[in-house]
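Quiz preparation item.
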């Protein structure tokens, strides 16, 4: 039960890492999560809320017997990083 929120946390980290706030804004993921939450995509906002509910469920005494349902059934699949585009495509061509 202690790691029932782990998949949600990993998905939130992954979503923050590839969000425009971090990539284009040059901010830290923690800064985007705390101060710029309204700029995050819908996916990150819903993962943030689900992570909060999952952590809250871990402290709820009623759910200790039933189990924390919020995060236990979430499957996390990591994203692949975007391919880096070469800055000078002519330099990559060998004659």
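Solution:
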């Amino acid at each position: 039960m202690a790691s029932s929120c782990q998949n949600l946390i990993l998905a939130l980290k992954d979503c923050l890492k590839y969000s425009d706030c971090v990539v284009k804004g040059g901010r830290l993921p923690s800064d985007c999560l705390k101060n710029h939450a309204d700029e995050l995509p819908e996916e990150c906002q819903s993962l943030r809320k689900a992570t909060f509910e999952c952590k809250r469920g871990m402290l709820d005494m009623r759910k200790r017997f039933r189990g924390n349902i919020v995060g236990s059934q979430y499957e996390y699949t990591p994203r692949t990083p975007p391919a880096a585009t070469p800055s000078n495509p002519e330099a990559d061509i060998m004659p």
